[in-house]
Structures are given as structure tokens and as C-alpha cells.
Please model this.
Amino acid sequence: MEPDKPDKPAIQPPEEKPVAGVSLIERVRGDVKEDIDLLKDKVSKENIKEEIENLKDPTRTQLYKSMFRVKHEPTPRSRSLGVLTNVFLHLHPAKINRDAVRFSYTWGMGGITFYLFIVLTFTGILLMFYYHPSKGQAYQDILYLENDVPFGKLLRNMHRWGAHLMVITTWLHMFRVVMTGSYKTPREFNWAVGVVLLVLTLLLSFTGYLLPDDQLGFWAVTVGTNMARATPMLGAEGPFGPQAGMTQYNDVRFGLLGGSIVDANALLRSYIWHCIAIPVIVSVLLAVHFWRVRKDGGISGPAPVMLESEMRSPGARAVKQSVK
Amino acid sequence: MDWHQLWEIASAPDNVPIVAMLFLVPFFAWMGFRQARANDKLIDQLEADPQLAKTHHRKTWPWKPHWARELHVWPYLLRIEFLAVLIVTIILYVWSITLNAPLEEPANPNLTMNPSKAPWYFLGLQEMLVYFDPWIAGVVMPTLILVGLMVFPYVDSNPLGVGYYTWKQRKVAIGAFLIGFIMWISLIIIGTFIRGPGWVWFWPGQTWDHNVVLYEINRDLPDIFGITTQPWKGIFGGVVVLLFYVLSGLLIHWIILRSEFEKKIFQRTSLLQYMVFQFFAITVLISMPAKLLARQLFRIKYVWVTTWFNI
Ligand code: HEM
Model:
């Protein structure tokens, strides 16, 4: 890309000014006149017209160029650079398989899941402005959100339903990956990353459930963490738990709740898992997930169908893999 | 038929997602299988005509030789992503304006909710608590499901069907996944629509009776055979479980090796891959419905009773 550089001014010899015979006043007057002429040029009709003309195409402004670095033109080069030189868009390659844009192939589910994660982060941060993770106050904060905060109810609803929707779209995304065989070599590892993302998505939803500190959340979390009591070796009531020295006060459930009952500590722990720890882990894993989608050769298809008769012998595959 | 009761369950705001799943999963399954059928037809055609196979572009979509194989992301993909974002945003807004997130009374440890249900996506686990002890339903099974999912790509040695929908070439993998997926959703549906107060089974449309008392007599399998003392109960149960694994394994083996194609795939599968596949198939996909049927049809509580654990 060639920025419009001004022509280099030709070096001119400094003008010889007659020194003698000119009074100070005249010199000042001459300077002022020169300055005013320059200003006049600036505000002249032609100049203003030209400037307005230039502003009409925002993509030619310095502001635009400083932000986007490339001209916005319908040429293959600009289109590619527009994607590749943008930090958000460069998750994408410059070009993709012509059939991959069909909704029927990916159902857009991975992308929609990611978008919902962003929506949840956004609405979640807004909710955090109004929420204290302490017993007594938490429930009041929800009532306040519901009744007094402008758009508070809408905010809470969007966060709630967005979370449910994200669970659904994650499942559908996984379903699509299975149906198109996209977990196969070389994408096995990315599938495993996906499974961890699935667990974290469910845990995000679950840790959020307790935060309103109402009956629904309280009993759901009570039921949920009661299962932890039964963990083999690590739970007070699990097989071999007592033999391993587990009691109500030191087992894995105690660790999860920060106590032996669902109370203030459990609320705080839920809050920190929900608002900080899990989102951070998810963000890191999403970076890995997207990176691997690219490194594994972009999304898997739609690929030309393979035939059974073209299947290489088992030996060939084993050799090929060991050579790689 | 108590329509009111049914409506009350289906319209509870937190149950709306599972009602939505009832439509979404069949819809997307239909969308996938429709494409699979079209591709399978094409595959048959190409297998039958090697000459065509050499020249065909091998997709069911139109193709002309002078067309570019690749498109620019800007604008062809980005505009679709933008549209998707717009549609999802609208759906979320409409949903959030029309339906309020539930808020119950403040948490009260002295007042038990009945039924006290987990969020819908965990109801499968909660429903499993009926059939297994908590350490299995709450800890071992979830772990096995996740590990099973993670090893899935490593035990699927079928090289065909990467990047296109097909059913014929991948019956075993897709079948296994679908059984698990449908089982999981069915358990959630049972947990949502059928379980009422006291986690008692109420058919959809049956009124929830909060005072219902059930006289269910559940027996352990060894007791039915008159074995009532340890260590014989433990030994008997162990033998039954072992038999269950062997028979299920043989059954699975028999089912999946029905065709020449599957036999070829089997030859590519290492013993380790196959054993791992069998282990997860039996433990996750077969034992769950087996225990469910044993309980619901024969009122059997435990199969294997030992001094330390019961299964
Ligand atoms: C937080 C949840 C997740 C997000 C945001 C996410 C996002 C994405 C996106 C944007 C893609 C690109 C293609 C597409 O849109 O389909 C993708 C691909 C993929 N995802 Fe996910 N994903 C998530 C969870 C999962 C899960 C649960 C699995 C599987 C267990 C998974 C496995 C994969 C695989 C194997 C690919 C490559 C697909 C291909 O090449 O066709 N992901 N993911």
C-alpha cells in the first residue's frame, strides 16, 4: 500500500531580501498581508469544496487509514488485506472453501456460540455493577435490578436466556461436528478442547444459578454439591471416603462450598468461579480452539466425498502417520 | 388428563429451553440426514461408475469448471456472520422481553423445595440418581461420559466421511453418538416432564400429588435368587456384572460387524482402540438403559452388593 506522500519540495535558494530602505512597519505589514493571504487561500471556495469532496469518501481520510491500514476497495488484494490486517477479523483466513459459507454445513453453530459468549460477557459485566456477592444483599440486588434499575429486568433476562441458549448451541455445534466427521485426524485434539469447553459452559451456567440466592438456586446447588459428597476416595460418604480420612469438614464438597453447608462462602466462591475464573479459562481455551481450527487447515469441509474403493490399506495409513 | 399441570411444567420459564430442544434437535438432525442421504446417493453413483468418479467434483452442489474454488471471507463470509449475529440478537431480545427469568423466595435452608430440581441441562444426572448410587450417577458417570467423548476421535479408525455428511460410511460412529445424545436428552425430558414431588414418576398430564406415598419394594438381584449373605452376594453380583460385560460386548461386536465395509474398518482398528470403544459403549451406552429397565420393569435396586459399594 502506497500512502499519498506529498511531493518533495524542491530546494530553493533563500530569497534575497532588500535590507536597506524598508522600514520596520512596512516589513510587519508585509508579513501580516502574507499570513492573511495564506488564510484566504485556506477558506477559499475551491479549497473548501475540495476538502469536502475528500471527506465524502471516508475511506480516504487519514483517520480511516490510521485505523484500518488498507484501502477499502473491491480488489482481491484489498479484500484479503482487510481481513488479514485486522486483529478481530484475522481469526479468519482471507479465503475459504466456496461451499463453507453455506448455512447447511456448519449451521453457524460454533460462531453463534462464540457470539453468545460475548453477549454474556457484556451483559454479565453490566450485572456486576449492581450485584454484591453477600448473603442478604445478593437477593436485594436482584430485586433492585428487576424493579428499579433502568432496563435491569431486560438485562437480567438477556443474561439468563443467553446462557440457556449457549448451552443449546454448544450441544448442536458438537452434534454438527460429529455428523460431518470433523473430529477426525488432524482435528482430534481440537475436539478434546471442545469437550472441555462444553464442561466449562455447563459449569458457567451452574455457578450462575446460585447467585440470585433464591430458593431455586439454593436447592439446585444443594442437590448438585450433595453428589460431590459421594465422590470415591474424596467424599465423606463416597466409597472408601471414610477410609481415606474424609469427613464433612475436609472433603471435596467442603472445598467446593467453602464450608459444610451452602452459605455465604459458597456464594462468594460461586461468584468468583462464575465471574472471573471460568470466563478466563474459557477465553484461553477459545483462543486455542480457534487457533487450532486454522492450523488444522480451516474448517473440515464441505469436502468432496471419498469412496470406499479409494480407502487405502490399513498399513498405508499407519506408515503415513508414523512418517509424519 | 390434566392439561393445566402439563402447561405449568412446559411453560415454566426455565423449562422453555428444553421445550425448544424438542424442536431444534429433530430439525437439525433432519437437516444433517437430508444432506447425508444426498451424499450417499452420490457416493453410490460414483462407486458404480469409476469413469464419472474421476471427473466429478464430488459434491451435491452445482459446480462449473470456471468457478473459483475459494471465496473471499470479506464480504462473503462476514456478511453471513453479520446476519447471524443480527438474528440471534433479535431472538434474544424478543425472548427476554416476553419472558422473565424466574426468581423464587430468598434461599431458605429450612424450607425444602419439592421437587427440588437441578437446572434442566443437569437433569439427566439427577435422573440417573434414581438408578445408581450418587458416586456413580454424580461422579463416575459424568467423568466417563466426558472421557468417552474425548477418546471418541481416537477410537474411530474409519478414514471416510471427513468434511461431509454421510450415514452409509459412518453408521457406527454416528449411531453410537446418537444413542448417547438421545439417551441424555430423554433423561432430561423424564426429569423435566415426568418427575414430580418426591421425584415420583407422574405421566405427562397426570396431576402432581404432593402427598403421594409410594410403596415401591425394590429388591437386590442376589436376593431374588435367594442369596442373602456376604460374601456370596458380592461374588454373585460380580459374576453377573462380568457376564453383562461379556454378553454386551459380543452383542455390540455382532451388531457392528454386519457388513463387509465394517469388517474392513475393523481390520484397521487396533486392539487397544477396540477395547476402549467397547468399554465406553458398554459402560455408558448400554448399562444406563439396562439399569433403567431393570428398575422400572423388575424393581431391581442393586445388581452387585458388596460391603464397600453397591451397583
Ligand atoms: C464454548 C463453546 C464453543 C465455541 C464458542 C466453539 C466455536 C467454534 C467455531 C467458531 C468453530 C468454527 C466452525 C464452526 O463454526 O462450526 C469451531 C469448530 C470446531 N469445534 Fe468448536 N466451539 C465450542 C465448543 C466445541 C465443542 C463442545 C466441541 C466438541 C466436543 C467442539 C469441536 C470443534 C471442532 C472439532 C471444530 C472443527 C470443525 C471443523 O473443522 O469442521 N467445539 N468451534
User: Anything to note?
Assistant: Strands of chain A lie at 95-97. The mean pLDDT of chain A is 88.
